[in-house]
Amino acid sequence: ERFLNEIASSLMMETPEMLYAEIGGGTLQVTSVIGRLTNLYYKEKAKEVTEEKVIEVKKDKDGVLVDGDSGLLIRFAGCCSPVMGDEIIGYISRGRGVTIHRKECPNIKYLESERLISAKWEQNAGSKFYATIKVVSSDDKTSDYINNVARNLKLNLKGFSFKRVKNDVIFDIVVEVSNKDEIDSAIRTFESVKGVEKVYRSE
């Protein structure tokens, strides 16, 4: 009822009854009111969670990623692909649980700050993650060698592609890892390849 009062007030109506009358008369779409109700509910829920706790990424007994205390469902942001060992932050999304981003994710600045929440890894979260490593070379002849290096990593190779950008060749190498240390190790391996100018993890 409190939310309905807020919505009525925002529409310059004195009571929720006036809101119902507008819906019944067809001058106000019920979907519009439902959308406002949903936003108010999740905004309050986000405030409650952010004031009370830190999100802890773990797996439940069924292997589903959840927050350790609240049981909120967790998913990883595709824009920055966080892995175990990254510094992370949570974003409470509308109706979709908590989305985990890397703290340095460039998209954080576009998110609603009141929905951001501290987050940390549980030590035995035990997940597998995908990470994209970019390798920049000025030598076309390194492509076969870099491909071989990628295939010989002690990681599952999930993707390998490259493109020419001006005078450089940029490789996108997707690997499956358990933690950040495995990414750092792979980056050092590619950095040791002759002709490679730069290696970094994709944002």
Write structural notes for this entry:
This protein has 203 residues and is of the alpha+beta class. The chain has helices at 2-10, 16-24, 30-52, 143-151, 180-191, and strands spanning 55-59, 65-67, 74-76, 88-92, 98-102, 116-121, 129-137, 156-165, 168-177, 196-201. It has a 6-stranded mixed beta sheet with strand order 2-1-6-4-5-3. The protein has a 4-stranded antiparallel beta sheet with strand order 8-9-7-10, with helices on one face. It is elongated.
Describe the structure concisely for a colleague:
The chain contains 5 helices and 10 strands, in the order H-H-H-E-E-E-E-E-E-E-H-E-E-H-E. The mean pLDDT is 81.
Task: Please supply descriptive tags for the structure shown above.
elongated, 6-stranded mixed β-sheet, 203 residues, 5 helices, alpha+beta, 4-stranded antiparallel β-sheet
Topology, please?
Blueprint lengths: L1 H9 L5 H9 L5 H23 L2 E5 L5 E3 L6 E3 L11 E5 L5 E5 L13 E6 L7 E9 L5 H9 L4 E10 L2 E10 L2 H12 L4 E6 L2
Parallel strand pairs: 1-6, 3-5
Antiparallel strand pairs: 1-2, 4-5, 4-6, 7-9, 7-10, 8-9
Largest sheet: 6 strands, mixed
Percentage of residues in strands: 25-35%
What letter string, H or E per element, gives the SSE order? HHHEEEEEEEHEEHE
Structural class: alpha+beta
Q: Helical content, roughly? A: 25-40%
Distance between the termini: 43 Å
Shape: elongated
Give the radius of gyration.
Answer: 24 Å
The count of strands amounts to 10
* Tally of alpha and pi helices: 5
